[in-house]
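Inputs:
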Amino acid sequence: MMTSPYPVATIIGILVAALTIASGLIWLERRLLALWQDRYGPNRVGPFGLLQVLADMIKIFFKEDWIPPFADKAVFIIAPAVIVITVLMSFAVLPIAPGIVVADLNIGLLFILAMSSLGVYSVVLAGWSSDNKYSLIGAFRAAAQMLSYEVFMGLSLMGVVLLAGSFDLVQIVEAQRHIWFIIPQFLGFVLFMIAGVAETRRLPFDLPEAESEIVAGFHSEYSGMKFGMFFVGEYLGVTLISALIAVLFFGGWLGPVLPPVLWFLLKTFFFICFFILLRASLPRPRFDQLMNWGWKAMLPLSLVNLLVTGAIAIALSPGRSL
Amino acid sequence: MLSILRTIWDVFLHMFHRRVTVQYPEEKPYLAPRYRGRIILSRDPDGGERCVACYLCAVVCPVECIALQATEDTSGRRYPEFFRINFSRCIFCGFCEDACPTYAIQLTPDVEMGEYKRPNLVYEKEDLLISGPGKYPDYNFWKVSGVAIGGKDKGEAEREAPPADLHTLLP
C-alpha cells in the first residue's frame, strides 16, 4: 500500500483542486455548450470570461437563502450538504498519481460505490422535505433512476475488478501497465459511462430535475447557497465519474513523457468534456424508456459482460483446467 | 443507437462552424434603412417643420406615448406648440409613421437609447426635430397640398390643379 508522505498537504490539495475544478466547470460547461451551439458563451468577465466563475459565486453567496415555511426545516438544510460530503468522500480513495492519494483503501471501489449510493439520500430528502409536488416527483424519479442504474454500475465494474484482481484503485491502475482496461473491457466501459451519466443526473438522464417537465425537480424550492451546494455537488460528481473512468479504464496516471499528475488530469478533463458534449447533443428520454433501458438492456448486458470476462479469466489463468 | 452516436459526432463538428453571435458593442449588426427605431420629426427641403399638428399619430398610437399641442404661426400654418414622445412607453410599432400625412414623423435605424433614469426617455420637440428631410428628401407637403397658407394660395402648388369654380357647376 502506498501512502502519501505529506497526508495533510494531500488532503488539502485534493480538496482545493476538486472544488476549483468543480467551480471552474460552471465556466467550462457554458463555454463548451456555446462552442457546440455556434455561440461564444461567457467571454466578457476577465480573460476568456474566466472571472465569470467569480461573479457567479459572489452572486450566489449574496442571494437570499430562503427556507419555505412549509418545508421540513432540519432535513431541508441537511440535504444539500449530504451530496457534497458523499462526493468529496469518494475523492479520498481516488489515486491521482503514485503517492498522491488520501486513503489507499483495499476496498476503494466498493467505497466509491457506497458513497454514490448514499448520495441518493440527498436528492430524495431534498425532494421530500420541500413538501412540493414537483420536488417530490423529482425525488421519486431520482430514487428509481439511481437505484436501477446503480445495480449495473457496480456489475459493469466487476470485469475490471476480475482482471485486476483487486478492489484497490491503486492496484487497478498498476494492473493496466501493459494494456488499458478499455480494450478488454470495452462493453464494461460503455455501460459504466451510461451508468455514470445517470448517477450524476446529467443530461440526457436529468429526469429528476427535468426543467421542462417539473420546474427544477428536487431542488425547486432551493435558493442561494443551498442551491449552490446541489450545483457544486453535481459538478463534483461529473469530475468524480470522469476521474473514475480515467482510473478504471484508461490507466489513471499511466502514460509516457508527461508527469503522472498531468496524465491523470488530461484524461479526466477529456471525459468531463465528453459529458458536456453529451449534454449538448442528446435529448432527454421518457421515464419509462429510461427504466426499460436500465433493467432490460443494461443489466443483462453487464451480466453477460461479467460472465464472459469471468470465463475468459478462468480459461487463461495458469494452473486451472476446465 | 447509431443515430445517437451520429448526433454526438455532428454536434461535435459544430465546433468548427462560424459563430452566429454578433459581439455587439464592438461590432454592430446591420439595421435596414426602414428599421423601426428611435422616432424623429423631419423638416421640409426648405427647412420648415413638416409637422402640421393633425394629431393623427397621437390618435393611432396604441400605447398613447405621443402628446402634442397644435398652434398656428402668423401665416396661418399649423405646427405643434410642443411635441412629446415618451420612449419608455413607445413600442416602436411604426403606426405613427403610417398615419402621418406629411411624412413628418419617421422611425430611424437607431436603437441605442438606454438610460439610467426614466424621465430621460421623455423626448421633447427639440430632441425629436432633425435638420433634414429624413427618408423623403424631395417631399414638401405644403407644395403638394390643397391648403391655402401664407405665401401659397390654393392651386398654386406643384402637381396641383386650380380649384373648381363652384358657380360653373350650377345647372
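Chain B has a mean pLDDT of 88. Flag for discussion at group meeting.
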